[in-house]
Amino acid sequence: MSYSVIGSSVNRVGGRDRVTGRQVYSADVSVAGTLHAKLVRVPCARARIVSIDKTGALGVPGVRMVFSGEDLEPPYFRYGPVFADKPIIAIGETKYDGDPVAVVVAETVDAAEAGARAVEVQYEELPAVVTIDQALDPGMPLVQDPDTRGDSPFRDTNTLKEWRFGWGDVETASADLVIENEYSFPMISQFAMEPFAFTAAPDHDVMTIYTSIQIPTKMQKTIADLLGKPLSKVRVVAPDPGGAFGGKQHPKFEPVLAYIAEKLQRPVRLELTLAESFYAVRRTSARVRVRSGFTRDGKVAFHDVNADWLIGAYADITPRIVEKGSYAGGGPYVIPAVRILSRALLSHTTPPSAFRGFGVPQMNLAIESQLDIAAKKLNIDPMEMRLRNIPRKGQNFLPDDPACDGHWDQVIARAAENIGWNTPKESNRGRGMALGIKMSATTAASYSVVRLHADGSATLLCGTSDMGQGARTVYAQIVSEELGVPIERIHVVMGDTSTVPFDLQTTASRSTVYMGRAVYAASQDVKRQLQEASSQGSDSNEEILKSLFGKVSGEIIGVGTARAEKRDGHPLGGHTAFYELVCTAVEIEVDRETGGVTIHKLVTAGDVGKALNPQHVHMQDDGAAVMGIGHALMEHLIYDERGRLRNAGALDYRIPTTKDTPGKMVSVFVENEDGPGPYGAKGCAESGLLAIGTAIANAVADATGVRIRELPLTPETIWSALQEAGDRS
């Protein structure tokens, strides 16, 4: 089908402000009369708070309050998107390195910092749970008090929850080859370039929160519950974040600021340094043991998976991460028998949250590595191995969920073609391939309003957060396509709960599909009203509006909704709207003297349904791929035996730079307009990251003959593995 704007790579709405520094971020917000906050911490993971002497801090000129857990009275308010388990400040005991024990509030930043240094905390360091084995050890201390765990069957353990998924009979499944291995995926930081900055500003009976949150409506409800206010009395203003990647989905320190601001009736602001951000949020690590069976002709007979996920001191959204990451943990393949047991384990480490990929990369490393190992043992090409197991469009591969919704064999073919899969390789080079699949959101509630003004321009209101993914642009393209309004005459309003209608979340690569449908519906509503008002079908919008409103003027308002309701009985609460499927292929070179890896070429091929803005898709794929190179080759948070984070900050935590990017990056996609979104679109924001760690691991094995089952593949790790392999030979 031919479109006027859809399918074109129009310039990003707001892109110039981002690159010139004119964009206003949450740290740029200034509210008159603001007080400044600084957090007080103790240098260990777990400690009993013996006493907090605030005298010295209160003597610092400009200090107005020193707030701590002893200022709270039971029952203590706790919050969290899945389990309400996190207090607004440490009460009696710290749970992780960086857990704040007090907040100093002062007239200036300098005074707040001086006050924080003057707070004297007496504490007793206690044994901490830092590793998966410690979390599973019944002799180790409990991270959470059983009295806060409700009726959980695991309340007296460090298991937050466990999930069992699968079908068929693994015990009786017949296989010619059985492979069993263990894989490890690291803790990493979301490392958004924009640090966290929050302001809580009371104005009579309304509390306004300024924050770079991904889901303003979730924040609004949390603060309303905390302060006992109706939703109408809590306003969340969320300027477009400077990166989020899942780390800014849910509240961090906004609740404690709101509590203090309500008490003082003054605005209170907290800005974290980049290093402090490492103590605020991280990605969940995992250890996955998998036993896999294969037939002689390369078909997967079964997967038997046990996955342990090391979450932090509080749940945040990790139960959903483990649940969704595990449910389709067998990969995008037709498999007769699958059994998956996953456990979320509490630990005295930084509270985790979502991260681009939402649990898929952790499981992907295990499953896609197993396929490559089997392919080598069976003397089958790894690409052919995947083609023999991939479902065809309309074929079921998850028994109780939608069938394969795309031509996924085309995705594999595009990746292989662009990497030169069957061409000769130079010495010390290897190629690797991996498929990744992610289920999208299973429930949704997105509302949109389109206002067509008397002069033919338009304003679009929606609750999505534009974190750099280009949501403003795509939505403007939809309005432009449907109403014929030039994009430069469309203003997109986001990020203010007092202005925009409700959106459930900006996560799960869902925004183009769900909010896109709402924007499309609102545009259709406007179009319908225009047609009803038009005396002639050929009238322009301006002519119709002039005829309709005359000199009094006015506007046409369209409303659109897209919803997906919860489905009782489904393990995830509902069916996925679409599958986000990617094939990643790489060509790398290993320096055997140092263990260093050079990525010469990287290809991501995805099933996108319809690319509403092709350049956006390429940028999403490339950005996600570079981020994935981080956890593949270098990124990992390091905790010592006492649970202290040892590499917080940009100097000690290495992320990919321009020197680490591939020599050539290629992003291709398959478009069959078969998605549930407007014009047949599917989501694609996370696909570039889903399988890259495994593709690189497979390529390293291809280049060296050595299989490494732990990320990141640092030079030291690879060199050591090569030395060990040499010793064995």
Predict the CATH topology of the largest domain: Aldehyde Oxidoreductase, domain 4
**Average pLDDT, all residues:** 95
Dominant shape: globular
- Stretches where pLDDT is under 50 for at least 5 consecutive residues are none
Q: What's the β-strand tally?
A: 25
Helix content: 25-40%
The CATH superfamily label of the largest domain reads Aldehyde oxidase/xanthine dehydrogenase, molybdopterin binding domain
Helical segment tally?
Answer: 18
Q: Indicate the radius of gyration in whole angstroms.
A: 26 Å
Using the 3D structure, state the CATH architecture of the largest domain: 2-Layer Sandwich
Secondary structure class reads alpha+beta
Distance between the termini: 60 Å
Describe the structure.
- The protein is α+β, with helices and mostly antiparallel strands.
- The chain has three domains: 15-23 and 444-564, 2-Layer Sandwich (Aldehyde Oxidoreductase, domain 4); 31-126 and 196-271, Aldehyde Oxidoreductase, domain 3, CATH 3.90.1170; 359-440 and 577-728, Aldehyde oxidase/xanthine dehydrogenase, molybdopterin binding domain (Aldehyde Oxidoreductase, domain 4, 2-Layer Sandwich).
- It is 27% helix and 24% strand.
- It is built from 18 helices and 25 strands.
- The strands form six sheets. A seven-stranded mixed β-sheet has the order 3-7-1-14-11-12-13, sandwiched between helices. Strands 9-17-16-15-10 form a five-stranded mixed β-sheet. A four-stranded mixed β-sheet has the order 18-23-24-25, with helices on both faces.
- Strand 4 (78-79) and strand 5 form a beta hairpin.
- Helix 5 packs across helix 6 (254-264), helix 9 runs parallel beside helix 17 (692-704) and helix 15 (614-633) crosses helix 17 (692-704).
- The radius of gyration is 26 Å and the shape is globular.
- The model has no long low-confidence stretch (mean pLDDT 95).
